[in-house]
Protein backbone atom coordinates (compact mmCIF):
# COMPACT_ATOMS: atom_id res chain seq x y z
CA UNK A 1 0.00 0.00 0.00
CA UNK A 2 0.97 3.62 -0.53
CA UNK A 3 0.37 6.21 2.18
CA UNK A 4 0.41 10.00 1.99
CA UNK A 5 0.51 12.02 5.20
CA UNK A 6 -1.22 15.38 5.32
CA UNK A 7 -3.43 14.07 2.54
CA UNK A 8 -6.09 16.75 2.92
CA UNK A 9 -3.56 19.56 2.55
CA UNK A 10 -2.94 21.40 -0.71
CA UNK A 11 0.01 19.23 -1.74
CA UNK A 12 -1.34 16.01 -0.27
CA UNK A 13 -4.60 16.13 -2.20
CA UNK A 14 -2.72 16.64 -5.44
CA UNK A 15 -0.44 13.69 -4.72
CA UNK A 16 -3.49 11.49 -4.09
CA UNK A 17 -4.99 12.61 -7.40
CA UNK A 18 -1.75 11.77 -9.22
CA UNK A 19 -1.52 8.35 -7.56
CA UNK A 20 -5.10 7.53 -8.53
CA UNK A 21 -4.05 7.67 -12.18
CA UNK A 22 -1.91 4.55 -11.80
CA UNK A 23 -2.72 2.95 -8.44
CA UNK A 24 -6.04 1.35 -7.37
CA UNK A 25 -7.82 3.50 -4.79
CA UNK A 26 -7.97 0.68 -2.27
CA UNK A 27 -4.15 0.58 -2.21
CA UNK A 28 -3.83 4.25 -1.29
CA UNK A 29 -3.94 5.39 2.33
CA UNK A 30 -4.84 9.00 3.02
CA UNK A 31 -3.23 9.58 6.42
CA UNK A 32 -4.93 12.65 7.86
CA UNK A 33 -5.36 14.51 11.12
CA UNK A 34 -9.13 14.84 10.64
CA UNK A 35 -10.71 11.94 8.71
CA UNK A 36 -13.98 13.81 8.22
CA UNK A 37 -12.15 16.20 5.90
CA UNK A 38 -11.27 13.24 3.68
CA UNK A 39 -14.81 11.94 3.27
CA UNK A 40 -14.69 12.71 -0.44
CA UNK A 41 -11.59 10.54 -0.82
CA UNK A 42 -13.23 7.70 1.12
CA UNK A 43 -16.18 7.82 -1.28
CA UNK A 44 -13.74 7.23 -4.13
CA UNK A 45 -12.35 4.12 -2.44
CA UNK A 46 -9.23 5.62 -0.88
CA UNK A 47 -8.45 4.19 2.56
CA UNK A 48 -8.70 7.03 5.09
CA UNK A 49 -6.87 6.67 8.41
CA UNK A 50 -6.29 9.09 11.25
CA UNK A 51 -2.65 10.13 11.50
CA UNK A 52 -1.95 13.17 13.65
CA UNK A 53 1.73 14.17 13.80
CA UNK A 54 1.21 15.56 17.31
CA UNK A 55 -0.47 12.34 18.55
CA UNK A 56 2.07 9.55 17.96
CA UNK A 57 -0.39 6.89 19.11
CA UNK A 58 -2.37 7.43 15.88
CA UNK A 59 0.59 6.86 13.58
CA UNK A 60 1.33 3.17 14.09
CA UNK A 61 -2.20 2.00 13.19
CA UNK A 62 -2.22 4.38 10.21
CA UNK A 63 0.85 2.76 8.70
CA UNK A 64 -0.17 -0.90 9.07
CA UNK A 65 0.38 -2.65 5.73
CA UNK A 66 2.01 0.41 4.17
CA UNK A 67 5.00 -0.30 1.95
CA UNK A 68 5.76 3.20 0.65
CA UNK A 69 5.12 6.33 2.66
CA UNK A 70 5.24 9.99 1.68
CA UNK A 71 5.97 12.21 4.67
CA UNK A 72 4.79 15.69 3.73
CA UNK A 73 6.54 18.15 6.01
CA UNK A 74 4.42 19.63 8.76
CA UNK A 75 3.10 23.15 8.35
CA UNK A 76 4.41 23.95 11.82
CA UNK A 77 7.58 25.97 11.28
CA UNK A 78 10.35 25.86 13.87
CA UNK A 79 8.55 23.16 15.81
CA UNK A 80 7.95 20.39 13.31
CA UNK A 81 11.00 18.23 14.02
CA UNK A 82 9.38 16.27 16.90
CA UNK A 83 6.35 15.63 14.67
CA UNK A 84 8.54 14.36 11.85
CA UNK A 85 10.48 12.22 14.32
CA UNK A 86 7.23 10.58 15.46
CA UNK A 87 6.28 9.71 11.87
CA UNK A 88 9.72 8.28 11.10
CA UNK A 89 9.67 6.16 14.27
CA UNK A 90 6.18 4.85 13.51
CA UNK A 91 7.14 4.06 9.92
CA UNK A 92 10.20 2.14 11.10
CA UNK A 93 8.18 0.09 13.59
CA UNK A 94 5.50 -0.59 10.96
CA UNK A 95 8.06 -2.06 8.57
CA UNK A 96 7.61 0.55 5.84
CA UNK A 97 9.99 -0.32 2.98
CA UNK A 98 10.43 3.22 1.60
CA UNK A 99 9.90 6.68 3.00
CA UNK A 100 9.85 9.78 0.82
CA UNK A 101 10.17 13.20 2.44
CA UNK A 102 9.31 16.64 1.08
CA UNK A 103 12.35 18.67 2.08
CA UNK A 104 13.61 22.07 0.89
CA UNK A 105 15.85 22.93 -2.03
CA UNK A 106 19.54 22.48 -1.09
CA UNK A 107 18.53 21.86 2.52
CA UNK A 108 21.99 20.61 3.42
CA UNK A 109 23.73 23.84 2.39
CA UNK A 110 20.98 26.49 2.40
CA UNK A 111 21.46 29.63 4.45
CA UNK A 112 17.69 29.98 4.95
CA UNK A 113 16.43 29.39 8.47
CA UNK A 114 13.52 27.45 6.98
CA UNK A 115 16.00 24.80 5.82
CA UNK A 116 17.24 23.92 9.32
CA UNK A 117 14.46 21.53 10.33
CA UNK A 118 14.40 19.99 6.87
CA UNK A 119 18.10 19.16 7.17
CA UNK A 120 17.52 17.77 10.65
CA UNK A 121 14.64 15.63 9.39
CA UNK A 122 16.81 14.25 6.59
CA UNK A 123 19.38 13.31 9.23
CA UNK A 124 16.72 11.55 11.31
CA UNK A 125 15.69 9.52 8.27
CA UNK A 126 19.29 8.47 7.65
CA UNK A 127 19.66 7.49 11.31
CA UNK A 128 16.47 5.41 11.12
CA UNK A 129 17.99 3.13 8.48
CA UNK A 130 14.81 3.27 6.39
CA UNK A 131 15.34 3.21 2.62
CA UNK A 132 14.46 6.74 1.60
CA UNK A 133 14.14 9.25 -1.19
CA UNK A 134 14.51 12.93 -0.40
CA UNK A 135 12.42 15.37 -2.44
CA UNK A 136 14.01 18.78 -1.98
CA UNK A 137 11.24 21.01 -3.25
CA UNK A 138 11.99 24.52 -4.40
CA UNK A 139 9.69 27.43 -3.62
CA UNK A 140 6.09 26.95 -4.70
CA UNK A 141 5.14 29.39 -7.44
CA UNK A 142 1.82 29.76 -5.64
CA UNK A 143 3.73 31.40 -2.76
CA UNK A 144 4.49 34.34 -5.03
CA UNK A 145 1.01 34.54 -6.49
CA UNK A 146 -0.69 34.75 -3.09
CA UNK A 147 0.37 38.39 -3.20
CA UNK A 148 -1.12 38.95 -6.66
CA UNK A 149 -4.36 40.70 -5.57
CA UNK A 150 -2.42 43.15 -3.39
CA UNK A 151 0.17 43.69 -6.12
CA UNK A 152 -2.54 44.55 -8.63
CA UNK A 153 -4.24 46.87 -6.17
CA UNK A 154 -1.12 48.72 -5.07
CA UNK A 155 0.93 48.40 -8.25
CA UNK A 156 3.82 46.49 -6.71
CA UNK A 157 5.15 43.25 -5.33
CA UNK A 158 7.39 43.68 -2.30
CA UNK A 159 10.24 41.53 -1.05
CA UNK A 160 13.84 41.47 0.08
CA UNK A 161 15.34 39.19 -2.57
CA UNK A 162 17.10 41.87 -4.64
CA UNK A 163 17.87 40.24 -8.01
CA UNK A 164 17.95 36.70 -6.65
CA UNK A 165 16.54 34.08 -8.99
CA UNK A 166 13.73 31.76 -7.95
CA UNK A 167 13.36 28.34 -9.56
CA UNK A 168 9.79 28.19 -8.28
CA UNK A 169 7.57 25.45 -9.68
CA UNK A 170 3.85 24.74 -9.54
CA UNK A 171 2.51 22.73 -6.63
CA UNK A 172 1.03 20.17 -9.03
CA UNK A 173 4.49 19.61 -10.56
CA UNK A 174 5.92 18.78 -7.14
CA UNK A 175 2.91 16.55 -6.45
CA UNK A 176 3.48 14.65 -9.68
CA UNK A 177 7.11 14.10 -8.72
CA UNK A 178 6.11 12.75 -5.31
CA UNK A 179 3.56 10.39 -6.85
CA UNK A 180 6.16 9.20 -9.33
CA UNK A 181 8.68 8.19 -6.67
CA UNK A 182 5.96 6.28 -4.82
CA UNK A 183 4.46 4.51 -7.82
CA UNK A 184 7.69 3.59 -9.61
CA UNK A 185 10.87 1.79 -8.54
CA UNK A 186 14.51 2.80 -8.44
CA UNK A 187 14.35 5.90 -6.25
CA UNK A 188 15.60 4.58 -2.89
CA UNK A 189 18.78 6.28 -1.77
CA UNK A 190 18.34 9.26 -4.08
CA UNK A 191 18.04 12.95 -3.29
CA UNK A 192 16.29 15.08 -5.88
CA UNK A 193 16.78 18.84 -6.05
CA UNK A 194 13.38 19.75 -7.50
CA UNK A 195 12.98 23.10 -9.22
CA UNK A 196 11.39 24.70 -12.26
CA UNK A 197 13.11 24.56 -15.62
CA UNK A 198 13.12 28.36 -15.87
CA UNK A 199 13.96 30.74 -13.03
CA UNK A 200 12.91 34.36 -12.57
CA UNK A 201 13.61 37.35 -10.38
CA UNK A 202 10.80 39.09 -8.56
CA UNK A 203 11.24 42.02 -10.94
CA UNK A 204 10.69 39.65 -13.87
CA UNK A 205 7.63 38.23 -12.11
CA UNK A 206 6.22 41.75 -11.75
CA UNK A 207 6.96 42.51 -15.41
CA UNK A 208 5.09 39.41 -16.54
CA UNK A 209 2.10 40.32 -14.38
CA UNK A 210 2.17 43.79 -15.93
CA UNK A 211 2.26 42.35 -19.42
CA UNK A 212 -0.65 40.00 -18.87
CA UNK A 213 -2.83 42.24 -16.72
CA UNK A 214 -2.30 45.48 -18.61
CA UNK A 215 -1.60 47.19 -15.31
CA UNK A 216 1.72 48.64 -14.20
CA UNK A 217 3.13 46.40 -11.48
CA UNK A 218 6.65 46.97 -10.17
CA UNK A 219 8.88 45.14 -7.74
CA UNK A 220 9.88 47.13 -4.67
CA UNK A 221 12.88 45.67 -2.88
CA UNK A 222 12.99 46.35 0.86
CA UNK A 223 15.51 45.83 3.65
CA UNK A 224 14.88 42.56 5.49
CA UNK A 225 13.48 44.26 8.59
CA UNK A 226 11.12 46.44 6.57
CA UNK A 227 9.82 43.45 4.63
CA UNK A 228 9.37 41.51 7.85
CA UNK A 229 7.37 44.39 9.31
CA UNK A 230 5.25 44.59 6.16
CA UNK A 231 4.39 40.89 6.38
CA UNK A 232 3.53 41.21 10.05
CA UNK A 233 1.44 44.26 9.18
CA UNK A 234 -0.87 42.19 6.98
CA UNK A 235 -1.47 39.68 9.75
CA UNK A 236 1.29 37.09 9.57
CA UNK A 237 2.60 35.89 12.93
CA UNK A 238 5.85 37.64 13.79
CA UNK A 239 7.92 34.43 13.75
CA UNK A 240 6.60 33.41 10.34
CA UNK A 241 7.11 36.90 8.93
CA UNK A 242 10.73 36.78 10.09
CA UNK A 243 11.28 33.37 8.49
CA UNK A 244 9.82 34.48 5.17
CA UNK A 245 11.86 37.66 5.12
CA UNK A 246 14.94 35.59 5.90
CA UNK A 247 14.06 33.27 3.00
CA UNK A 248 13.98 36.24 0.63
CA UNK A 249 17.43 37.31 1.78
CA UNK A 250 18.66 33.75 1.30
CA UNK A 251 17.15 33.81 -2.20
CA UNK A 252 19.21 36.90 -2.95
CA UNK A 253 22.25 34.66 -2.35
CA UNK A 254 20.99 31.88 -4.61
CA UNK A 255 19.33 29.62 -2.04
CA UNK A 256 16.14 29.13 -4.08
CA UNK A 257 17.76 28.72 -7.49
CA UNK A 258 18.62 25.45 -9.19
CA UNK A 259 19.18 24.69 -12.86
CA UNK A 260 19.63 20.93 -12.66
CA UNK A 261 16.24 20.22 -14.32
CA UNK A 262 15.65 17.18 -12.07
CA UNK A 263 11.96 17.96 -11.64
CA UNK A 264 11.24 17.97 -15.36
CA UNK A 265 13.13 14.71 -15.84
CA UNK A 266 11.29 13.06 -12.97
CA UNK A 267 7.83 13.97 -14.25
CA UNK A 268 8.78 13.42 -17.89
CA UNK A 269 7.83 16.86 -19.18
CA UNK A 270 8.70 20.52 -18.93
CA UNK A 271 7.68 22.15 -15.69
CA UNK A 272 4.72 24.52 -15.84
CA UNK A 273 5.86 28.00 -16.93
CA UNK A 274 5.28 30.82 -14.47
CA UNK A 275 3.51 32.70 -17.28
CA UNK A 276 0.87 29.96 -17.40
CA UNK A 277 0.37 30.13 -13.64
CA UNK A 278 0.02 33.90 -13.74
CA UNK A 279 -2.55 33.60 -16.53
CA UNK A 280 -4.56 31.09 -14.52
CA UNK A 281 -4.37 33.24 -11.37
CA UNK A 282 -5.51 36.34 -13.25
CA UNK A 283 -8.38 34.39 -14.76
CA UNK A 284 -9.53 33.26 -11.31
CA UNK A 285 -9.41 36.83 -10.05
CA UNK A 286 -11.56 37.97 -12.95
CA UNK A 287 -14.34 35.51 -12.18
TrEMBL record:
Pfam families: NAD_binding_10. Transmembrane segments: none annotated. It comes from the Bacteria. Residues 6-183 form the NAD(P)-binding domain. InterPro entries: NAD(P)-bd_dom (IPR016040), NAD(P)-bd_dom_sf (IPR036291), NmrA-type_oxidoreductase (IPR052718). This is NAD(P)-dependent oxidoreductase.
Amino acid sequence: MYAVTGATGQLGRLVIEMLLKSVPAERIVAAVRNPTKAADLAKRGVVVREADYSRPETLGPAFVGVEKLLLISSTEVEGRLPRHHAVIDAATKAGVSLIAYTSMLHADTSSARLAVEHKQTEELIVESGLPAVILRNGWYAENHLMALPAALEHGAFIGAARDGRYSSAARHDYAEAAATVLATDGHAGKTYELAADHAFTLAELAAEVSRQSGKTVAYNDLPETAYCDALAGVGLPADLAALLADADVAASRGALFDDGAALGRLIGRQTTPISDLIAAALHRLSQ
